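PROTEIN ENTRY
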Amino acid sequence: MTDTDTGPLSLTRAEAEERFALLEVDRYDVAFDLRGLLEGDVLEATSTVTFRCDEPGSSTFIDCVATVTRATLNGVELDPSTQDRGRLPLPDLQADNVLVVTSSQSDTASAHGIKRTVDPSDKLVYVWTTFEPDMARRAFANFDQPDLKAVHGFTASAPDTWVVCSNSRHTSIEDLADGGKLWTFADTPRLSTYVTVVNAGPFYERRESRGGYDLGLFCRQSLRHLLDRDADEFFTVTEQGLAWFGEKFGVPFGQEKYDQVFVPDMGGAMENWGCVTWGDGVLFRSDPTYDQRRQAASINLHEMAHMWFGDLVTMKWWDDLWLNEAFASWAATWSLVGATRYTDSWAAFLATGKLEGYRVDMGPASHPIRGDVPDVSQAMANFDAISYQKGQSVLRQLSAYAGEDAFLEGLRAYFRDHAWGNTRLEDLTGAVGAASGQDLTTWESQWLDESGTDTLSLDGDVLRAAGPGGGRPRSHRLDIGCYAEDDGRLRHVGDVEVRTEGAETRVELPDADLFVVNDHDLTFAAVRTDKASLDVMLRRAGDLPDPVSRALAVATAYDMLVKGELSGDDALTCVLGVLETERLEGIVEPFLRMAGLIASFYTPSADITAQRTRVADSAARLATEPDLAQGALLALAANATKPEHFAQLDAAAEHNIGLAWRVAATRAAQGDDDAEAVERLLERDPDPDAAVSALIVRASRNLTEAKEEAWHALYAEQSVPGGVVMGQMIRAFWRPEQRDVLMPFTERYLQEVPKLAGGGMLKVFGLIGGMFPMVGDQRFLDDATALAKEPGTDPTVRAALLGGVDTLVRKLRARGEL
């Protein structure tokens, strides 16, 4: 049990198992009163819980991290003062029970499950909830664990001007005698508490009927023009995804209504059944680039996939979190390629998200995909690139290992047999194993119970496999792509299909000049080809005929860079060489971002300007091509160094306010601080969060007072919106060339992050993991490591510190600072 302070207790696995064995919950009837949030901060709720107990006379507790004002159990008054650290004792249970708990929650500004936001432009108030993993207990009394599923019936009393959204369609809206309106919603299916939701405010709404579904989109009034711009894209991808998943999984989505609500000051998105909540940063303030649209489509399909993986069938406990997140991530990319216009998404994933999986898995914060989760606080730490990106890659490997047809047949059986229930890992691998006729027990143990990344190295006609630290490797199913240099191009000779078992596998290779290990990216492993092939790959990566192959070549160069096997200059040369000929929208932008990352963070300080100039020159050239211009201009804005770069940007920014802000930030970082220009941008920008854009420009300056202002907004006020905007602030704040000004903030970071433990997941992850310093020295590294290892350090903080230290060490070594 996590019990390091006086905050609410974290539910342990043992406690959850005991409560599951004792109880069966029939339904929750929850009456929210949102009217106190119009001008104040109080959310009131009355939760009526109907449940059964297998051992009459026994006791348990219900979760409620709010002030209990009244409670009755089977008509008998309970003493609210017995509530302790988020738990209300329930003595002397009967076989059939009705519990009624009325509670009041005033912590509605911190995003601990509930967030009340005032739009700065028009002062309209919006309220959203997000309950994963155990935040539902902050809004209403419940048994907050994933395997006590129940029907939920919600009502909400709201101000007259507000729209209220929940999981199911509303069945009535009635006037209340004491003011406001009462919204009543249809019963949900049997859901875990963490995927329930209530969102409210004077939303702008768009609705369309697509593919037999009633699709809704909501946003705050000040962003309605952006939702109008993007609505058709969201409706189209949503229609495509619902049709794809319904057919492939053999189970259509279980209700007609499917809403998506874009809310302020939220990072990421949340897969509430029938009512997905997004941070509205994804309504990009300037016309989105191709890659930004692809990312939005990916989030859309990830959260939609959760309607099956997570909502319809839910992991029994948080040690199988990957059953939710890895599958949703895999399904998102799979459906992007199969059902939408974003057919290059496997290459884009390899060039972006998968590299983050490798980054975390190579460091001390690595953990098995199926981790040990003794309590919910540990579950928070596992919402990371292991559960998401590595998990996604491992599922693609399972599909290749078992065969895609058998894999999908197993998934259909899994959904059919476990609908509205809870599962463990063995339920899924058993279904896939039965469909493929294979015993997956060994595969399961190797891939899901062991941490770290294997290395696959080609040595002549032998493919060598080494497990993490040189240990026992996993079994792999992969391809070796074979290419010949032929008249100035690379000609595909063929693919050699390989299934490894053990440390060495002999392969029969045709005559070729380049052998690409793990071509088509079917497995999760660090790959190395023979020296002759490596020379060709680094020099000719852009000539590989398939985008996944090109992405794999670039990813290999990047992996060699972070492991000290390749210099930053050589890695950058490889990436920029590919960009000489690359024209696929889906990977040009990720490659440009990677080039900028190498130039800024894996380059000695004295050489940063020269390397950024190389990146900017490449971006400037690509920006002259209409299909690539938007993404290339963003890269140019981040790396511009020469007058001609800024002239090109200024011309483009006349009609692109988002680009104009980025150019202003780059100028400010280089000492060209124009306060009047910032004021003109503020006057021109209709974005309700434009003041934050101005703050980002000021934070870019190489001045202590500039960093202090940003720090106060981030940590004291917590006024920087989560998600896209926070990412821009982080990049503006941590600039390696500003090391001298930034060094004092490294130790201040260590003072701040422990205070954030246990906070709202989708916002504070940016302030914990995202804000890990990008400059440092040995003292900071030692202090961060010591804090991570202190007894009682929150698991989320510990993982962020250990992973951050490992990554920073690699950057400092590449920069020659360690």
